[in-house]
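Researcher: Here's a chain I'd like modeled. Treat it as a single chain, no partners, no ligands.
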Amino acid sequence: MMRPAEKGYRLPEPLPDGLRAIGVEESGRAWLAVLPRLVAEVVERWQLEVGKPFLDASASLTLRAADQDGRPLVLKLQYPHREAEQEAAALRAWGGSGAVLLLAHDPDRHALLIERCRPGTPLYELDQDAALDVLIGLLPRLWRPAAAPFTSLAEEAAHWIETLPRLWEHAGRPFERELLDAALAVIGELASGQGEQVLLHQDLHTGNVLRAEREPWLVIDPKPLHGEREFGLAPIVRGAELGHSRKHVLHRLDRLSGELGLDRQRACGWAFVQTLAWSIDTVVWAEMIEVARWLRDAYRRA
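Model: Modeled as a single isolated chain. Structure tokens:
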């Protein structure tokens, strides 16, 4: 454990996969170079002891920590990027209702001190329908009216229209142009005329819902937007953790949209668009491209 009085911090060796991926880009390497200093500064400021990292964290260094009373916590140092900009604001908005509590935030160092979920086992350890039962209970609690400072779904959609063709070219055209054109057309159909705007967690897969003590299950790691509820189903519908097949994907879409009283076609369209948009990152996710094709076909048939 690193104690508050210690002024240095040594990055874990080997680096977790998420940190190694960040280091591919020049900006990521620059952040990794200053990261030991940032950790040491917030450990001193918040009087923490820190231990081993969570190896499955992405775009951050996320460490087991404890305060002076021995309370188990999580210290998260975020790689500064657009999707993480308002994580602290989303956690504040939820106030611990269905999500982990934010205990402290240092915006200059992109550091968050968060409640730790114990035992912390992920929701995907349940079978598909039991996991969907949990999510159907959680989602309405998270969907509360929200506006500033969160990026709107309309703004995110405009960003995809601008960037997706360029990313597709840069990635070596990893899927047919028709699929890209279909996504751009669906964005145009859905971005206007949305329903009530609420706070959304656009990465709410079942690895980001953990078993806890204060509540049975708590949501972590928000990448917030504000937009219509139908968009909020996308990460669950595509999530391979609950089964990767056309049948599984459409079952999740049908159960969630039906039991939450949402427009199935709009939910399907948003799931198609976001799945394709997120399939091209530092790597190309072939599994997500396959899901996008299933969702495109379902949207056309609706």
